[in-house]
């Protein structure tokens, strides 16, 4: 049994080595670039967009050049406050888009979506409610977003 297992691992290692050699993967020439930034959006930074019926905040992001925009994967998360079963508030990170259902002070239930759009040099964070009502403002006074761009530099 041990010989079969060792034989399997040897063959697997040989196969992986051949695949890497055949694909031309050269770790000395290729490098992966990763840029991560925390972006804070305050209550006063949000502006209502009538066309999309959502609250938006445009942020310039110089890391997102035209080349990076075309090559990168951009992922984001938002830190939100939640309450546990003992009514203790804690902060947690949620991947974007983040969709959450709330009950307001008048006991109406609504769903809020927090996400972002990416274009060269700009990030557009937004908060959109399912009722598309501009009177319902973002739930938190300040949002902290974490955005990461990952791309291969040749």
Report what the structure shows.
Helix content is 18%, strand content 50%. By secondary structure, the chain is an alpha+beta fold. The protein has one domain (28-153). Strands 2-3-8-7-6 form a 5-stranded antiparallel β-sheet, with no helix packed on it. The radius of gyration is 22 Å and the shape is globular. 15% of the residues are buried. The model has no long low-confidence stretch (mean pLDDT 83).
Let me know the average pLDDT.
83
Q: Number of folding domains? A: 1
By DSSP (H or I, 4+ residues per run), the number of helices equals: 2
Radius of gyration of CA atoms, rounded to a whole number: 22 Å
Secondary structure class reads: alpha+beta
Low-pLDDT sequence parts? none
- For the biggest β-sheet, the strand order reads 2-3-8-7-6
**Strand tally:** 9
| Biggest sheet descriptor | 5 strands, antiparallel
Order of helices and strands: HEEEHEEEEEE
What is the percentage of strand-forming residues? over 45%
End-to-end separation: 44 Å
Shape: globular
Percent helix, as a range, is 10-25%
Quick description:
This protein is α+β, with helices and mostly antiparallel strands. Helix content is 18%, strand content 50%. It has one domain (28-153).
Provide tags for this entry.
single chain; 154 residues; alpha+beta; five-stranded antiparallel β-sheet; four-stranded antiparallel β-sheet; 2 helices; 9 strands; globular
List the helices and strands and how they pair.
Layout: H1 2-23, E1 31-42, E2 47-49, E3 54-60, H2 66-71, E4 73-83, E5 89-95, E6 98-103, E7 109-119, E8 122-129, E9 142-153
Antiparallel strand pairs: 1-9, 2-3, 3-8, 4-5, 4-9, 6-7, 7-8
């Amino acid at each position: 049994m041990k010989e079969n297992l060792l034989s399997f691992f040897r063959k697997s290692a040989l196969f992986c080595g051949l695949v890497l050699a055949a694909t031309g993967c050269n770790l000395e020439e290729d490098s992966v670039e990763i840029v991560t930034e925390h972006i804070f959006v305050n209550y006063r930074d949000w502006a209502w967009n009538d066309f999309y019926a959502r609250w938006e905040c445009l942020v310039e992001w110089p890391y997102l050049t035209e080349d990076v925009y075309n090559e990168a994967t951009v992922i984001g998360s938002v830190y939100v406050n939640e309450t546990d079963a003992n009514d203790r508030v804690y902060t947690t990170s949620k991947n974007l888009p983040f969709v959450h259902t709330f009950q307001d002070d008048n006991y109406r239930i609504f769903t809020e979506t927090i996400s972002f759009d990416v274009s060269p040099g700009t990030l557009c964070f937004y908060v959109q409610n399912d009722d598309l009502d501009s009177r319902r403002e973002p739930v938190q006074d300040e949002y902290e977003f974490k955005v990461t761009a990952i791309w291969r530099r040749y």
